[in-house]
Design brief:
Layout: H1 2-10, E1 14-15, E2 21-23, E3 28-29, H2 36-40, E4 47-49, H3 50-64, E5 71-72, H4 79-83, H5 85-88, E6 96-97, H6 98-112, E7 119-121, H7 122-129
Antiparallel strand pairs: 1-2, 2-3, 4-7, 5-6
Length: 135
């Protein structure tokens, strides 16, 4: 669960609006123009709201869905996500729907929000990602 949580909080194989590009499984900032946390914190208040998190995850899902069929197949996932596909694919049809993806990301946000204030701080994000969310 920790690996998957770190992946979902930190990653997404896509480029952000600000040009920052991330590698999903590695949670690595490729362009090094901003940290993963900071690019997710769209209002720059030093914390990630559920709305900011949900929007980032929706964008991540859309960018991973290469054939635009509304689901993620094994071919559209990186090796880290494939390893956890069974935890996300609740109907066991071999594909992750946008609803399944949203459900797991909602659970992970709640799990990572250790003080239950409705926001992820840099400290909470780093605890889950092993320091990969803030570089």
């Amino acid at each position: 669960m920790v690996v998957l949580a770190g992946l979902v909080i930190a990653g997404g194989a896509f480029a952000q609006d600000d040009g920052t590009e991330f590698s999903c499984g590695e949670a690595t900032v490729v362009t090094a123009t901003a940290s993963v946390f900071d690019s997710s914190d769209r209002d720059a208040d030093g914390k990630i709201s559920y709305e900011e998190y949900r929007n980032r995850m929706a964008k991540m899902f859309h960018n991973l869905d290469k054939n635009l069929d509304g689901t993620l197949s094994k071919d559209e996932l990186d090796e880290v996500m494939v390893a956890h596909q069974g935890h996300i694919d609740l109907d066991a049809n071999g594909r992750i729907s946008d609803r399944e993806f949203a459900g797991i990301t909602t659970l992970i946000f709640a799990w990572a929000d250790t003080d239950n204030d409705g926001y992820l701080t840099k400290s909470e994000a780093n605890e889950v990602t092993g320091g990969e969310a803030v570089r």
